[in-house]
Design a protein that fits this description.
Blueprint (H helix, E strand, L loop, with lengths): L1 E8 L3 H12 L4 E5 L6 H5 L2 H23 L10 H15 L5 H7 L2 E4 L2 E3 L4 E4 L4 E9 L3 E3 L27 E5 L3 H13 L2 E6 L9 H11 L4 E4 L1 E9 L2 E8 L4 E6 L1 E4 L3 E3 L6 H4 L3 E2 L2 E2 L12 E3 L10 H17 L12 E3 L4 E6 L2 H8 L3 E7 L4 H5 L6 E7 L4 E8 L2 H4 L1 H8 L19 H16 L3 H12 L1
Parallel strand pairs: 1-2, 1-6, 2-3, 6-18, 8-9, 8-14, 9-10
Antiparallel strand pairs: 4-5, 5-6, 7-15, 11-12, 12-13, 16-17, 19-20, 20-23, 21-22, 22-23
Amino acid sequence: MKKYDIAVIGGGAGGLTAAIGAVQFGAKTALIEKDPEPGGDCLHYGCVPSKAYIKAAKELRDAKKAAEEFGLGLSGAPDFSVVKSRVQDAIAEIQPHDDRKRLRSLGIDEYHGTASLKTKNEISIDTGETIYAKRIVIATGSSPMIPPIAGLEDISYLTNETIFSIDRVPLKLVVLGSGPVGIELAQAMSRFGSDVTVIDHSGLMEKEEPEIRELAHHLLSEEMTFMFNRKVTKAQKKAEKIGLTVEGDSGTTQEIECNALLIAAGRKPNVKEMGLEKTGVDVKDGKIVVNKKMQTSVSTIFACGDVTGEYPFTHAAGLEGKTVVANAVFGVKQSVDYTHTPYTIYTDPEVFHLGLTEKEARDEYGDNIHVYRSDARHVDRFTAERIKTGLVKIITDKKGAILGAHAIGTLAGDWMQEVVFAKQHGHKIKDFSSVIHPYPSHGEMVSKAADQYWQKRLFEGKVPKLTETYIKWLR
């Protein structure tokens, strides 16, 4: 039986970060991955292929819009095989960073197979091998959650794991779920030419600021149909179509038809058939329970990424993987901290979220907060590009420390990154006013919001009277 300092089950973002970090610090490391190549959901079914879809869809929409505006003729349907090739090419170019050959070159022993725990230190692989590790890391990710819908087993439906392999755009598409996966793919498919309807049991982007949520809903409603506070209770095959029974809150039902159904109703951690019950690892609501050190109830076993259900984003899994290395390899008792971890919903325009919302800040700090806003209409770069929709909202405490920052706008996930840096390193909102942004740039939206801090300080209260007195004395 081979023995290791650390063995990682799962080659997604969290698992790769943990395995590569461990081996680079000198730990004898093994990684077990069931798929042909590592990379996880993000590379093969999530972040990378979806962004390739989104980019292609935006280019197509922009081409149509430009042709119409400049009086050019544009007709015909897009060649969807080009889109499919873009997805495959993007995956192929990134794969070498994560593939088995590279892992071996780094000194990691990689195993291709499905793993399960025999004891708190032993892992059984379905190829017949058993390995021993002082520390084990579970990073098996998550899978699409399939809701209990009558008749669903009798029809063919899509998930984020299968939609990128379709050969043509469905004439009518129903998307079940309006979370980041569902809404991003819904907008992309609409721009490819599909008539899209989104059905959700709640509403759109409910974790976002009300004004951002309302603006996103308004813009996205121009490209698709929404059916909120409803659920699909039955599905049946109807010749070349799919029939769906949709039920509202009041119990009323209606029948709709589509050519394809995309289920994007959330994710579930991959914890089944892993032998967790043999080790005593606590599982609650289908998620592996971990402490702030990413350690499970068994001291030798750690977990990171979607399998914990803590913060289901690739960059969060990477953060957790680094925390695992610190604790499992060095025992430094480092805690993971999501306080400064942002996320972006990659619709067009993008929606950016960092820290507390205004409501959350008021619940915690009462009236001892300030809210600063800026609008795309007052930023020359957006005006020059004829973009009239965009918003930044920054919430601070009484002293100007950043509690939360939220935005909707073109490439907001990029130009809001300076706010993440500022929040993480303790800078206050006033500091943005002294940052020089090249003119004209989208990032000027942030400095416009910060300028309001000085407007309040310099032109309200006692300061204007004092400066007026000083100027008169100086003269």
